[in-house]
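INTERNAL TRANSFER SHEET
From: sequence group
To: structure group
Subject: Phage portal protein

Please process the attached sequence and return the structure record in the designated field. Keep the field labels unchanged so the import script can parse them.
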Amino acid sequence: MGFMDLPIFILNELSSGPYGPYVTQRLAEVQKWYEIYEEGAEFSIEDVGEDSEEKKFSPTELRSKKIKRLINKQAEFMVGKPPDIKVTCPDEEKTDDGKPNETAMQEYLKEVLKKCLWSGKLLKGAKDCFIGGKVAIKVNVTPDKLGIMFVPADGFLYETEPDDIDVISKVILFYCVTPDDEDKTRQRWWRQRYRMENGKCYVAESLHDGYGELIEGYKIEDRDTGLDRIPVYVIVNDGVSGDMDGDSDVEMIQDEDSWYSKMRSANLDTVRKTMNAITWVSGAKPEAIKKLVNEPGVVWDLQADPVLDGKTPTTGTIENSFSYGDTYKDTLANINENMHDSLGIPDLSLEKTQGLMTSGKGLKMLYWPLICRCEAKWMAWKPALEWLAELLLYAAEVFPGLKTIYGDFQHAEHIITIENQYPLPEDEAEERALDLQEVGTGRSIKSYLKEWGGPDHKGMTDEDADSEIEQMVKEKRMLEESFPGGVM
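Return from structure group:
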């Protein structure tokens, strides 16, 4: 549904905040970026004139939709392999079974994310963020259920505290429940508003038709959510200090995508026009030429033009050499390369990858620009996921019944860490072997265990590494006591 289809009451609410008309203007831009993402960037077609013979030829208008492929690849690389959200309780004493409460908290989070279909939503939310410049994570907290959803940039408006841009003071969310119905009387628009007052979070909900009329029975006045925070977090894509809207990756490369599509379409037109040899006729009567049919096996009866004093008609063909081919390829390649470079995505075409290393280190080098770009984006995403994990744990304190659904645990001091993962193979066996050779010379046993210890070679904590070293010392002492003369 386009910007012009928004009901007046939504537009009035959007423009009534501190930013005024800028908000509605930005909303129109966001919806335009989504249109470009789905359909490709527009490009101009040269006007050949009403009376031109070219009017008999329909120019090609083939949009490449390369923006969609590049943004999808960027999102898939960044979060296609979901990050690990880990809970650690440093003050909990370790038992023979590890840290039971820490494990219980981890299992609780794991169960919530699983039932909320987290992996798929995370991937789609990343795409929304790259397209619209920002995205909101909203957690629906009720006494018997938790829900997680990502809201695109054209579905919410938020305000922050005057002296702290990181603290949200008000959020308005809206969307059309019946987007395919053009009749405004049958349209249904849902609106939800969160706000903070005296340290409490209140929510109001209502359902309207396309004219803004309230649907009877579908309004909830300010209700205390029981939370001490608004359950919404806004992730801003790139941008600068104080930017609340972020930058759209679509806007960054839409001009290149337009030229890319235009060049390809023009090339197709050239091929269509000149893929067959041009046949020429000389010395024939104009009436005879008009009756010629260019089909296989046809015999032409050419009559000489009497004006030319009986000159014998002749025919021939002109082959097209496509001499512009190299220039076309270079131009297209330059535009394509600029689009890839803008998003840090390597061009893995067959021509580009011939002769390159296929080891884990080689692929990591190839993907290094994209890794750097994703790491920059993770600076905004990691705090958001930490906030999400904290809110999910806090919700179980407010509504203890959630523990019977997702898993019981005891509240304790804890630390949330986010470990992002990229889908690249690692040369772990080789790296472990090299690091092991350094133990005793340029590396301690503890540092090796912290990096490569554990059953899955994912590393150990300080406490686990100390316990493992202590166990190794005990076993060595037992061997020495069993063999007083030394172990042969």
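Handover comment: The longest helix spans residues 368-398. The chain has a mean pLDDT of 84.
Transfer complete.
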